[in-house]
Amino acid sequence: MNLSTSTQVSAGDSDLTYGTGPITWDDATWILTSSFIIFTMQSGFGLLEAGVVTSKNEVNIMVKNAADVIFGGLSYWMIGFGLSFGVDEGVNPFCGVGYFFVDSSNEDMGLLFATFVFQLSFATTATTIVSGAMAERTKLSSYIIFSFLNTIIYCIPAHWIWSEKGFLYQLGCVDIAGSGGVHLVGGVAAFVAAGLLKPRMGRYDNGIEPLPMGNAVNTIIGLFMLWWGWLGFNCGSTFGISGGKWKLAAKAAVVTLNGSMGGGAAGIIYSVLTKKGKYDVGYIVNSVLGGLVSITAGCAIIRPWESIIIGVIGGILAIVFVRLIDKIKVDDPVGAVSIHGICGMWGLLSVGLFGGNDTLENLTKNRYGLFHGGGFYLLGIQTLAVVCLVTWTSVMTLLILLPLKYTIGLRLSPSEEILGADVVEHSIVNEPVTTNYSIFFEIKQSG
What does pTM read for this prediction? Predict the structure, then answer.
């Protein structure tokens, strides 16, 4: 995924060197098509989250997903891409320099623009992960500011992992499609945000059992859209189909599907065993997503049968940690911390255990995971990556959200939260809150 500093251009922009091999127009088509598929994940996240929250907040959560693309996308175009993949003088192991306000009229236009669109789809996904954890009690104005600034949180670790100058890349960290760079970053930010916001009113008055879903069908439809988008996410991260890349892309598809099936199977079995024979929709959805997140880091270098094991573990982690997070009363309505944060950690570490050497595009730099005789080096680097990403994301999320909390405020007022963000932020009155018209007009009159 790194934008190589050794990029070279030949006549007609038809043969660009990228990483270990050339980027051709065929590769650019693959990259752009994958990017467009990844963007459909915004719809999937939106539907899944809207299905989990109460109906009085479903429009608001969809708007927040739109804000992630609008405002997160603007800041990524302005500075984010450059801080991740800039190659101008001054680039260093911490951040990139250059490509700010992305534009090009030179021969590198094709590679630069295709790479930008692909990386933009990743950046907006990392922000969208946080929206679910902040659902049902966050001011939209504050969330928009966070969405704009969250690019800073995402783009620096992306440089560390995917730029040839990044220090984790140079040490040999492997995160092919973003278990760490996207999901762990998003999950940690979600944990910090949910902790600062405090629980929804009355959330734990009757214990830690999850609240009823507003629309389980929307949640499942969202899952399918994310499933589809994940194939673009993981297979597209081979960054082309020329040379050996098409083989890795095909392998990534199989491994991704196996990981999700392993996670889903574990979730269904766990539900039947713990829910008196019932098939809990939340367990099924979370376990599939947990399997997908877990396999994302190693999708092109893990064997298909190993991906099932990784997916099973990820599916169980996603379910178990949702309850553990609730026990410490960090209110995460959609389970983003567990699915993306915990399973993102597991995804990075699983490469250090199960990673096989890639002889096609040298993605692993001739290293193996512990279970394939590679010793502890790769596992150690993957562990270092977890520590760095958790530390960076925690600190930066606090630095962004604390000033918002103590200035314009992060949270809706109690009366606004009771009424619901749809009517307060968008003047949309849903059926369950029609009896609260008087509260609505009081809020409108008071400004």
Answer: 0.91
